[in-house]
Structures are given as C-alpha cells and as structure tokens.
Amino acid sequence: MKALHTINRALSLVDGQTEPARGAEEVTVRVHHASVNPTDLDIVKGGFDLYFRLYGVKEPARTGLEFSGVVLDGSARFPTGTRVFGYTHLLKGPKTHQQVISVPEGYIAKIPDGMGFAEAAGFPLAAQTSLVALRDVARVRPGQKVLIVGGSGGLGVIAIQIARNIGARVTGLAGPAGQDIMKALGSERVVDYRQTPLSEIEGVFDVVLDLSARYGFRDIRPLLAPRGVFVPADPVKTALSIAANPFRRQKTGKLYVDRGDTALLTELAGQVVTGALETGPVLEFPLDDYRAAFETLKTPGRIGRTVLRMH
Fold first, then answer.
1. Rounded-to-integer distance, Cα 133 and Cα 113, Å
2. Are 167 and 226 contained in the same domain?
3. What distance in Å separates the CA atoms of residue 88 and residue 39, rounded to the nearest whole number?
C-alpha cells in the first residue's frame, strides 16, 4: 500500500504502509479519494509540528483531512461495504493521504446516491465548515446581506449555496474566472477583486465570511453593518479581534471546525440528494501526481476542490 509521508518538511510517496489497527468505535476504510487542502501545505512547511508533538502524533503520514472510500471492517452503524465520506481530526489524525485508515464513526457519513467518490472527498470539510460558519457562528437570517470573500474556491462554492438556501442576499468576491460560477450558484451580486478591491466594494453587510484568510477585522470593519459579524476562516490570525468582541457592537466570529460530525454531514448529504446543494467543481489527480495536485493550491483564482485518487 502507498502513502504520502512528510519527511524533513517535504512530501514523499512511499510503499509498504501497514494496515492500521482498528480502535474502539472506529471503522476501517479503504480510501478511494482524498482532498488536498491549504492546511496540507501548512503541515508540509512545518506549521503544525508543535501541535503534532503536543498531541503525540507519530504517524509519518501527516497530510490529508477529507476522504471518501469503502468500509473494510465495519460496524452496525456503517457495515462493511458501505460507501462513506468524512473529515478526520485536524490535529490527532488519522491523516487521509494513505490507502487504508481507521477512523472514528463520529467523523463520517454515508455517501448519498448519485455522488461519486471524487466529489465526496472534496465535500465534507467545505460543506460542514460553511454550514457552521453561516448558520451557527454568524446566525444568518433570511434577507440579510452576506459577503463571501473567496466565493469561487472550494469552500466558497458551497458557502454561497448555503447562504442562498437560508434566504440571504449574497455577494461573492473572487477573481475573473470565478464570476460565472458564483452567479450560477446563487450570488445576487458578484465582484471581481482585480477590478474592485475589497476597500472599494459599495454597501455594508450583515455578515462577511472571509474564506481567503487574507483579511483582518480592520480591513473588514468598514463593510460591516453596525451590528455586523466578520467570520474569518483562520481564527488563530484573528484571536485578538475575537477577544475584543465585548467592547464593540461589530463582532468577529470564531470559526473552528476541527473534525467531521456525522449528524451535520448526513444533513448536508441529504441536501445534495434533494438538489439544494451542488458539490462544485473537482480537479482530480492520480496519487503518483501528488506534486501537481499540491501545486494547484498555489494557483490564484482556483475554482473548486483538488482531490487525489488513492487507488
């Protein structure tokens, strides 16, 4: 079996992975596809080394958060042969850039009929994070104005749909290549950041969701309504702003989704079945081309998700 190993802060594809032991309340899954995320780049650069030491992570496979696959050793909840998808723990693992994993039942859900493995691997983190950001953190209500920064990216294409389904009036911000897809998915208004920088966007918003992780509260504040909420994708970079919430009417929401949740993933899968959600574009690479897959994360204006075919 093959896996991507992090060696000296670089990725290497190796053979000879042993099948992991199945823990309590876990199932063993043959990974069919796994996503490639910006977090994986941070891991390769050493950005998570301290956290991994604190949590006692020793497995050489350090990258990969989402996956789709087939249960090899199942349970009453997920019998052997069930098609599943999920999002493993951000810090504790197991990481998904390997061909077999044992994963807690609470992190996964059944793949809905009609969804392929490639689409399923790029769906859980994006969908669950977007749902939590808009419904639970920002508490978006029908009729509110929502700005989604990075609206054509892997999370953005889902976030636009979720905001639209809630009944919000959505504005999407992305590069020129992303304008059409944002319109098609439900943005009432689209903005090309190359022509209209963030500071020049007209109007104010009840919620600004920054999926680009580029901006701080000071950048977003002029765009917020008097009681508006800024939700950044990276809460670590905006920790001071979150701490200042008691002293101002405009707030910074704390978005931290560090693992899959069966109930939420099942709810979102149901929305795919009914047609309320589309999975969005997926760029697929074979495992042997993992370097090319990781390079796509560095491409400005990237649309949708990147996934590795693990078998």
1. 26
2. yes
3. 13
Tell me the three state secondary structure of residue 159. Answer: helix
Cα 77 from Cα 125, distance rounded (Å): 21
Supply the pTM of this predicted model: 0.93
- In angstroms, the CA 208 to CA 222 distance is 11
As for how many domains the chain has, the answer is 2
Tell me: the pLDDT tens digits for 189-226?
999 999 999 999 999 999 999 999 899 999 999 999 99
d(CA 32, CA 194): 37
Per the omega criterion (within 30 degrees of 0), is the bond before 235 cis? no
Of 216, 250, 247, 218, give the one whose Cα is nearest residue 232.
216
Q: Which two tokens stand for residue 99?
A: 């061909």
66-95 b/e (C-beta count within 10 Å ≥ 16 → b): bbbbbbbebeeebeeebbbbbbbbbeebbb
Q: Is residue 169 part of a domain?
A: yes
Mark which of 204, 234, 252 sits at the end of a domain. 252
Contact 36, 294 (CB under 8 A): yes
